[in-house]
Write a structure and sequence with these properties.
Keywords: Membrane, Transmembrane, Transmembrane helix. This protein has four helices and no strands. The chain is mostly helical and about 120 residues long. It has a domain of about 80 residues. The chain starts with a helix and ends in a 19-residue tail after the last helix.
């Protein structure tokens, strides 16, 4: 958990969005829900792939926040905002928040909670 916490938080968010798309409402995945699931999957993949750098420890969180905003825009623009869409927006926000607070350590040894490397 200490190494992959941010990625696990993003994966959990993607799974919840996919489950909601498949099981919520009419029990079928329409075009709008496909876009929602694709953005959630891109969030999980992006958070996993972005390495932490000493000067950019917020990189994984930035990916999650940018894609959460894209999720909100896609949801409201593609299908309008109804009661069911609020759940997807809440899930996107919770995913970004989970990524922000979860721990992570990249392969280069830089951790999300490590102190910044002093400049030379």
């Amino acid at each position: 958990m200490e190494k992959y916490g941010k990625a696990l938080a993003a994966i959990a968010g993607a799974v919840l969005v996919a489950l909601y798309a498949a099981l919520g409402g009419d029990n079928r995945v329409d075009a709008e829900e496909t876009v929602q699931v694709a953005i959630a999957a891109a969030t999980a993949i992006g958070v996993y792939l972005v390495p932490l750098a000493p000067q950019y420890r917020w990189g994984k969180t930035a990916v999650a926040v940018v894609l959460a905003v894209l999720q909100a825009l896609a949801t409201t623009v593609l299908g309008g905002l109804d009661a069911g869409e609020w759940i997807v927006l809440v899930l996107a926000g919770l995913t970004a928040a989970g990524v922000a607070v979860a721990p992570a350590v990249s392969g280069n040894g830089v951790g999300s909670r490590s102190p910044a490397v002093p400049a030379r």
